[in-house]
TrEMBL record:
InterPro entries cross-referenced by the UniProt entry: Methyltransf_25, SAM-dependent_MTases_sf
Taxonomic superkingdom: Bacteria
Domain (Methyltransferase): residue spans on this chain: 211-306
Protein name (database record): Methyltransferase family protein
Signal sequence annotation: none
Biological classification of the source: Bacteria, Pseudomonadati, Pseudomonadota, Alphaproteobacteria, Sphingomonadales
Swiss-Prot/TrEMBL GO biological process terms: methylation
Keyword terms: Methyltransferase, Transferase
GO-annotated molecular function: methyltransferase activity
Amino acid sequence: MASTADRLSERRNSVIPDIEALPESTLDERGRQRFCSALRRFAIQDMPEMLHKDFDHRVAPARQSEGVPLDDALAIEDAMEGEASYRFYSTLRYNAQEMCFQSVQEPIERALPEMIDLARAAQERNPAGGSLRLDPALPVPDYVSQLDVHLTPGCFHKEWVADDVAQGAVVALGARVFSASMSHRSWGGVAKVISRWLKHERHEFAPTRMLDIGTSSGKNLMPYVQAFPGVEAHGVDVGAPLLRYGHAVAEHEGIPLHLSQQNAEALDFPDGHFDLIVSSFFFHEITVDATRKVLAECRRLLRPGGIMVHQELPATCLVDAWEDFFWNWDTEHNNEPNYTDFRAQDPAVLLEEAGFEPERNFAHLLPDLGAYPDRAEAFGWNEPGRPRHGKGAWYVFGSSLPS
Ligand SMILES: C[S@@+](CC[C@H](N)C(=O)[O-])C[C@H]1O[C@@H](n2cnc3c(N)ncnc32)[C@H](O)[C@@H]1O
């Protein structure tokens, strides 16, 4: 009998062509995209190591000789912000980030009418059996609408024409340029890591209905359908263009996703509707007040015996001062003003406030074996020496409910 993965791939290339293949880059554009990928990798992976050395060997000794304590991220930022090394790093990182998204805009613009037609056809035909529910009256929260989050031009929600999918494409294809040179950022990798861990921890766990919060175009939702055959997979997001685009991708892939445009602070699903709730790269982009509301919604929506796993940036209380300084760069420089405030929260406290039982809550790193297949043996789930978050491991926090 064919496996679920085989059946899903047989259904691929069905009546809905691949929307992701429509924007065709010219040779010049491809060159630019490759340059942006390489620049970003250099800025975010190689430069921080050099910067750290500069801090340890030059900046810190000079400050300490003046009696300045350097024991938290703010003190390190204060010491580094005027230094040429830090300014050069920040400049490269800022521009590389912005250019990754800009590098896909022109091919997307040329293909836009065709992409919109394809997304409309996906909605009419739904060959994979998914669904798309949009709410044009939904107020987009200020923390999304008032700025281009992480320097993505047009952000997650802007619509320039009727039935627009452009921002879905800019976010999805820009993110591929953004992470193309980094082996530890495989497509849908977070979902693969979490589902593998869930199967390891709870062999018997077989969710029937799941929810991905802030799903964007569903890249971190789709792998769960393959990991848990038959699961009814729901994703919510405030950005309509992302959801239209994601729906077209999923219908092409033959994966039934149920996508709806909703604010995760107040969802319209009934109590206890899901036995698995996940999110990835979501909470650091919303306010702490909104985080509390979303976690309270998760508690309401999780069914007895259910599990909730959120992948996020490691909390301040879990990292050293240098790493804290490194992560908080985005707050001031990457249009992510809630980053530091979110990271300052202790996940254990947030979970308890939302009504989860302290002894069932967790916060830890999950190694991404997909990024280091040759070291699979070395990275047991709980071994010391695991890679850091963003360096081949993902930080997750969450909880579960008793059956
Ligand atoms: C950085 S993206 C993460 C996307 C995706 N989860 C991933 O792993 O790539 C954050 C997403 O959360 C969405 N979002 C922000 N605030 C939201 C809210 N209150 N309710 C639902 N979605 C929200 C944004 O539109 C965006 O698509």
